[in-house]
What we know:
30% of the residues lie in helices and 21% in strands. It is of the alpha/beta class. A hairpin with a 5-residue loop joins strand 2 and strand 3. Helix 3 crosses helix 9 and helix 3 runs antiparallel to helix 10. It is globular and about 60 Å long. The N terminus is likely disordered.
Amino acid sequence: xxxxTIRRSTAAKSRIAAVGAIAVAGALLLTACGDQTKSDDxxxxxxxxSSAPLANLLPADVKAKGTIKVGSDIAxxxxxxxxxxxxxxxxxxxxxEALGKQLGVKFEFxxxxxxxxxxxxxxxxxxxxxxxxxxxxxRQNGVDGETKKKVGAGVDFVDxxxxxxxxxxxxxxxxxxxxxxxxxxxxxxxxxxTFSQDLAKAQAKKCVADGKKTLKIEDFPTNPEAETRMRxxxxxxxxxxxxxxxxxxxxxxxxxxxxxxxxxxxAGPYGIALAKGNDKLRDAIQxxxxxxxxxxxxxxxxxxxxxxxxxxxxxxINGGS
Length: 321
């Protein structure tokens, strides 16, 4: 998800990710979903500074505040969503809580539109963005994924998970869709400024270049809105990151609404984003991530949400392509 800075960089060719293990893992997703972008829900995570082994790595101002403000689009289960009590839950909040224990600070999630998160970093509304955001060279360099024009200073990423992109349809109404090429002459719903939107735009151009009918694209502020449109038969398919698609297929209408078609494509790393120049905080977060990977806490969190196939132990800075 990002305005003019997509979830992944545009690729002329989609590389097919290994999906057998991920498909099994996706079927185990257990969280609650919905559109929570109307609320400014937060989750505090962390522990006392005295028990935090890596607190000395933080910038002085962050250490003094005792909090890290996290920009997040909290409508993307199982990565982040709100439960029935209004609490922010998911892979990202759990990882943030574990990082907070290492650093002695609380990670406070602040809800916002995905398209505005990188701008929020530049404006210092957030210290970091953690929202199933794929680390790409375009984002790192502040380049618009579609026009390739410079639109900002760019961001740095600390990579912590890996996911690809899937297409899904109303159950029993696949219309022969198995690959992106099968979408020519059809319509698709996507969340605004996501990699799915970027892939759809690239596919629409390819359809025309191949002498076929183009792909009609409808974009929405949130993924649940795209799904609602598909449920009403306004679009033929929806595309989203695989963990989200698998969750929706498993849980929407108790598994009766949707089905995934074909294989996921373009597997890439999710990254915790920080504004350029925020090197000390970036390096502190990387050190904390490495610590929870080494301790095994990271693996426990990923297993809790049933997405072990997305485990990424590299904890690289700017490892996306």
